[in-house]
Amino acid sequence: AGGGAAIAAAADIRLATPDTRFGMPIARTLGNCLSVANLNRLVHLLGESRTRYLLLTAEFLDLQPLMDSGFVSEVMDDPEACDERARALARHLTTLAPLTVSATREGLSRLSDRPIPEDVDLIQRCYLSDDFAEGIDAFFAKRKANWMGR
Predict the structure, then answer these.
(1) What are the CA-CA distances from residue 37 to residues 78, 114, 115 (Å)?
(2) What is the distance between the alpha carbons of residues 144 and 79, in angstroms, rounded to a whole number?
(3) Residue 75: what pLDDT?
(4) Where are the alpha helices (DSSP H) in 61-97?
(5) Residue 41 contacts residue 124 (beta carbons within 8 Å)
(6) Quick count: other Cβ atoms within 10 Å of Cβ 24?
(7) Domain boundaries, the chain
(8) pLDDT digits (tens, 9 = 90+) for 16-41
(9) 79-131 pLDDT per residue, tens
């Protein structure tokens, strides 16, 4: 969840276990927001409806919707099998033509890149807010945040 979810969203290949859940509960925890680039990535991976649900409700998605959207590449039985498969994939990738792999990754990134308007105002609105300061305080104090809407 949270930071781990952002890292997973940026990955080329995502492996999961049957109990995998994916969430970005920032509206419930820190009170920050995603950049338009990260929103674009999530919409591209999950679809707009699931992205809206995920972010606006601060809920988590279970494995099935992640599989349905293609977000998860493969499901392994347990974390150890997941680690083993990740290492096997990494070894396999080193046997492939590096320029082809690199060009393919870059081309796929370009496909999902759409013109994105400046989002500094959105980021500043969240990160400079009293709510974000409260979210940080609550996170470190291990308590629920008291949102004020400012």
Answers:
(1) 32, 9, 9
(2) 30
(3) 95
(4) 63-68, 79-93
(5) no
(6) 24
(7) 3-141
(8) 999 988 888 888 888 888 888 788 88
(9) 999 999 999 999 999 998 888 888 888 888 777 655 555 666 667 777 788 88
Sorted by sequence, the CB contacts under 8 Å of residue 129 that are 6+ apart come out as 31, 150
Any idea which residue has 């305080």 for tokens?
A: 137
- State the chain's mean pLDDT as an integer: 85
The CATH number of domain 3-141 is 2.30.38.10: no
Q: Which two tokens stand for residue 57?
A: 């409700």
Q: Does residue 78 have a pLDDT over 60?
A: yes
Between CA 32 and CA 113 the distance in angstroms is 23
14 touches 45 (CB < 8 A): no
Q: Residue 81: which of 2, 146, 16, 37 has the closest Cα? A: 16
Structure tokens at 8: 């997973």
DSSP conformational letter for 3? H
